[in-house]
Design a protein that fits this description.
The chain is of the alpha+beta class and 296 residues long. Helix content is 50%, strand content 15%.
């Protein structure tokens, strides 16, 4: 989903200002988040009696319980909006070092949101992404490269660093890390959810080009993962296998947006979706294709 359409959907359907949105700090692989959402839907469709927080906690620490049973226990605890269940998840998360660690973080995030919704008249809406974020800002990773793969000069490095930091600061963003690798540079940053990363990137390119045509128009940008140097090189060289991998990752992220928005609206309005909730005005085919905000 594009940055613009996501913003419009959230504002219209949830009737919340962007000060009411918070991004979870911990970044979790999109594939794990997708699995969590699918198992949550599966759990909600089961007709089993609800377990107490103590019963679910016992499953978490039972060496005979399967990983799947423990995942369902964490899901059930996360959905209750009960402070006792929240504390159970918190204790488990703080001591979990195995394959359930990321699952426990997701359960903790959801439980925190549900507890606040139960206790507050004006609860926040929480957003989870592959790279996490802070406050109402999402964390992004983007890469800029030189034309003709020529190594940046010291002047060009200094110019890029200053323009990147200025553009982010001018849009209430935060530069977390800038790393130069010969002919390309990677940036980790925080950008408010109501600000288009695309507009920031274009402003950087336009300013840098005032000092010479040494920067490429092709920019790699994502909020799903931090790419290794090897993967970045393959992306710059348009390796078809890596590009397909990234495309699938972005499609998963779009699917996750759908899962989370579906759930959030149901929670806040206590009603099921009908076909009108997702008509052409809200979603079209372009919302789930590569766009300038993700990869160009």
């Amino acid at each position: 989903m594009t940055n613009k359409s996501l913003k419009q959907f959230l504002e219209r359907k949830l009737r919340k200002s962007f000060s009411d949105f918070l991004v979870f700090e911990e970044g979790i692989d999109v594939s794990v988040q997708i699995e969590f959402e699918k198992m949550t839907l599966k759990f909600l469709n089961k007709a089993d009696e609800q377990k107490t927080a103590e019963e679910s906690e016992a499953i978490l620490y039972d060496t005979e319980s399967s990983i799947e049973d423990k995942k369902f226990a964490l899901i059930e605890l996360s959905l209750t909006g009960d402070v006792k269940a929240y504390r159970v998840i918190e204790r488990f998360k703080n001591n979990c070092k195995n394959e359930l660690a990321k699952w426990a973080i997701l359960a903790f995030q959801r439980s925190r949101a549900n507890v606040e919704h139960v206790l507050s008249d004006n609860s926040k809406i929480y957003i989870s992404s592959g790279l996490g974020g802070s406050g109402n800002s999402l964390r992004y990773f983007f890469v800029m490269s030189s034309n003709n793969k020529k190594n940046f000069t010291d002047f060009q490095k200094d110019l890029l660093k200053k323009e990147i930091e200025f553009a982010l600061q001018n849009n209430k963003g935060i530069t977390e890390k800038i790393t130069f690798y010969g002919y390309f540079v990677s940036i980790i940053c925080l950008v408010p959810i109501q600000i288009s990363l695309d507009s920031i990137l274009k402003s950087i390119l336009n300013e840098v080009k005032n000092f010479g045509n040494f920067i490429s128009d092709e920019v790699i940008a994502t909020n799903t993962e931090i790419f290794s140097e090897e993967k970045i090189i393959k992306l710059i060289n348009h390796d078809p296998d890596i590009e397909e991998e990234i495309k699938l990752s972005e499609e998963n992220a779009a699917a996750l947006d759908f899962f989370n928005l579906n759930e959030d609206v149901s929670d806040f309005f206590d009603e099921d979706f009908d076909d009108d909730d997702f008509d052409d005005e809200d979603f079209d085919d372009d919302d789930f294709e590569d766009d300038d905000d993700d990869f160009f």
